[in-house]
Amino acid sequence: MSERVSPPRGFPKEEYQARVMRAQALMGRAGLAALLLTSEAEVRYFTGYLTRFWESPTRPWFVVVPASGDPVAVIPAIGAHLMHQSWLRDIRTFAAPAPGDAGLALLGDTLEELTPPGSRIGVPSGPETYLRLPLADWARLRERVARVLVDDANIVAVLRRVKSGAEVARITQACAIAGRAFARLPEIARAGVPLDEVFRRFQMLCLEEGADWVPYLAGAAGPGGYGDVISPATRVPLAAGDVLMLDTGLVYDGYFCDFDRNFSLGPPAPEVARAHARLIEATRAGFAAARPGARHGDLYRAMADVLGTQPEGRLGHGLGMQLTEGPSIVAWEEAPLVPGMVLTLEPCIDVAPGRMLVHEENIAITETGAIWLSHPAAAEIQILEAT
Amino acid sequence: MSERVSPPRGFPKEEYQARVMRAQALMGRAGLAALLLTSEAEVRYFTGYLTRFWESPTRPWFVVVPASGDPVAVIPAIGAHLMHQSWLRDIRTFAAPAPGDAGLALLGDTLEELTPPGSRIGVPSGPETYLRLPLADWARLRERVARVLVDDANIVAVLRRVKSGAEVARITQACAIAGRAFARLPEIARAGVPLDEVFRRFQMLCLEEGADWVPYLAGAAGPGGYGDVISPATRVPLAAGDVLMLDTGLVYDGYFCDFDRNFSLGPPAPEVARAHARLIEATRAGFAAARPGARHGDLYRAMADVLGTQPEGRLGHGLGMQLTEGPSIVAWEEAPLVPGMVLTLEPCIDVAPGRMLVHEENIAITETGAIWLSHPAAAEIQILEAT
Which of residues 274-333 of B touch A (CB under 8 A)? Predict the structure, then answer.
């Protein structure tokens, strides 16, 4: 791998302090004495705690953001060494797994210490969130803590929608890495190569070009289009006339890209060429509409107008610490675009029953309009060797 | 990649039917009229539905296992094409994302159709589970459904502990792939190579050797040992005297391996050589104790006796569709070993304050004792080039 200039890893303490201050301002308005966080992205957003160990479901992890002051981590002992490398200073640990409720007891004590009696504690509960804690433990916690656990008034989701410059730099880097991998696809994909081998080799290209890891790769290949966009690879070899689509979410320093590319095995059928050009036109229309103050629904309409249909699914979404984040680009979404938002534009088109094409790019909203984070594809579908 | 014989992908319908029948027998004893499943492993266990699309948190997914008859899927429309390739025949879809509670309404109707009034529906709620549904939606569902939603009496977790032959074959394959990648580590790791480059290249080796994807890689390197085992890679170059540890959970056909290997950069210090040999001896003692009828706690004690300490953390765990599954190998775990269980043996040893070594192998329990799924490491730590 050739050396390239990459943004530094991790953020300065000030990045997290600013996030906490914004959260605390919103907590004050919502009447919340603390936030209780349990999931990977929520914990990392306020602490910078980055590990793939979340893959193990055994142990719960907690971060408490009080109404004033720094967050407090209440975590299994196995995570102490790494959490002490974060900016947090108050890190409380419990043995896990262990018999009994050691972690819940420590969390309960911490919550009661950090909040006044009778106050309310917000837990992310809205769209796209989940509680990373067994339901039985959740019930125990609610019984144990002499505070009212309520929803977080969507505070964490709303904050995460608007990225800092440092966050946009990571996503831009992830996009650049994926772009280089896509540019090398002709090295690994041609007629006769099984789709699962293309998937495997493409992930290797992503890593070779600088991905930290490749949490997401989907795609499909079929004559003149494909049936869905979320399937794992089959062993069917690519064949002349196929349209191959790969959609990757790779990670750089904890931030995702999420875009795809379509390829034709040999010269495309006229309807495929037209469909691809139409998707690019729709994407450009979405890009042009993506200005501060526009609604997410406006982007949907701009793309749907070009497509000439009203797709039932969304035509894009937020992007950042997770492969997909809110809000969705759907007709009914009235949330306004704000500088710092990072979005995917993802129009789709039906070429024939059971044969679709989907295109996707990543953009960021600035004060003056959108900028491309992925290098936008040309109207002409790329052609791979079919012999 | 050379061609190798791999187990076929996916399971026959009979595999899933047997799982459903076992679940239904336990549901009858627990007085449950249905199971409601929301998470990736739970849904896949009963359907075979395999996709990386779970990386997107936007949409909920539901599978209902009734007291008799086949499971019913209640899923977003985007998943219909892939779910129709599973053995399920009753697949109900809703638009998502969408305003309102379309998915919850369809799920509620389905639950009421499949269960008698006044009955109880089990939801996995115990250790290592989570509800993959926003808390606000969970509250809405409980209000809407005229049934009692209770815990699942640990039925799904208990079933998943005992693997079928087809499942063990997948885990064995994942272990073999990782074993080949570890054998090639000298190609990519030597003094002077930054740890993050080793991580990246090792994931490429895993893919080249046949991994479908690499959800987990952790590791560390430090002089004479390392401080923790869950950190992502730093950019610090490997140096003579370092112990390098890589711990990977790669996936083949939806099943994980989870084991590590330690390497010394140049000849190991005597205390490192001794520690490694002790870890191997402890692993072998755990293996020897791993017979049907033994308790998980017996394995802990067998390993702890060799280590000469009583580590606070666990010394292994279940393994399968997830990187880590229950039960844990801890002193207080009385669950008996049963043929078909797949476990990791994972002893650790402190070489000095802040310097540890961890070793890990994967085994399966058979009628007559344990078998190795990973090819067990030798007592001598492997040596990498230090110049």
Answer: 312-314, 317, 322-324, 326, 328, 330, 332
Q: What is the pLDDT of residue B6?
A: 67
Residues 6 or more apart in contact with residue A207 via CB below 8 angstroms: A213, A214, B200, B201, B203, B204, B207
Q: Cβ–Cβ of A215/B95 closer than 8 Å? A: no
Reported as type and span, the H/E element at residue A111 is helix A102-114
Cβ distance of B231 and A326 shorter than 8 Å = no
Instruction: List, in order of start, the domains of chain A with CATH numbers.
Output: 13-161 (3.40.350.10), 165-384 (3.90.230.10)
Residue of B154, B349, B258, B331 lying closest to A98 (CA atoms): B331
C-alpha dihedral over B104, B108, B114, B115, to 10 degrees? Answer: 140
Our CA-based measurement puts residue A312 at a distance from the nearest CA of chain B, in whole angstroms, of 7
With beta carbons under 8 A apart, name residues in chain A contacting B317: 58
Task: Write the ipTM.
Answer: 0.96
Select the residue from B104, B133, B177, B204 to test the A interface by mutation, using most A Cβ atoms within 10 A: B204
| Percent with pLDDT over 90 in chain B | 93
CB atoms within 10 A of CB A139: 12
Task: Encode pLDDT of A165-220 as tens digits.
Answer: 999 999 999 999 999 999 999 999 999 999 999 999 999 999 999 999 999 999 99
CB-based burial label for B312 (10 Å; 0-12, 13-18, 19+): exposed
Contact A82 B130 (CB under 8 A): no
Q: Is residue A342 a contact partner of residue A318, using CB atoms and an 8 Å limit? A: yes
**Minimal Cβ distance to B203: which of A207, A216, A332:** A207
pLDDT surpassing 60 at residue B211: yes
CA distance A60 to A257: 28
Q: What is the full DSSP assignment across B171-188?
A: HHHHHHHHHHHHHTGGGT
Task: Give the Cβ contact number of residue B68 at 10 Å.
Answer: 12
Is A312's CB within 8 Å of B77's CB?
A: yes
Q: Please give the Cα distance from A5 to A150 (Å, whole number).
A: 45
Residue A58 to chain B, least CA–CA distance (Å): 5
Task: Tell me which residue of A195, A281, A279 sits closest to A244, measured CA to CA.
Answer: A195
Report how far Cα B352 is from the mean position of its chain's Cα atoms: 30
Percent of chain A residues past pLDDT 70, beyond the cut: 98
Q: Does residue A55 belong to the interface with chain B, where contact is any CB pair within 8 Å?
A: yes
Nearest chain A residue to B249 by CA distance is A55
Which of B1, B57, B231 is the closest to A324 by Cβ? B57
Q: What residues in B contact A208, CB-CB < 8 Å?
A: 200, 204
The model's pLDDT over B244-292, given as tens digits with 9 standing for 90+, comes to 999 999 999 999 999 999 999 999 999 999 999 999 999 999 999 999 9
* Cβ–Cβ below 8 Å for A323 and B132: no
Residue (of A150, A147, A243, A143) closest to A191 by Cα position: A243
- DSSP label at residue A331: T
d(CA B356, CA B272): 9
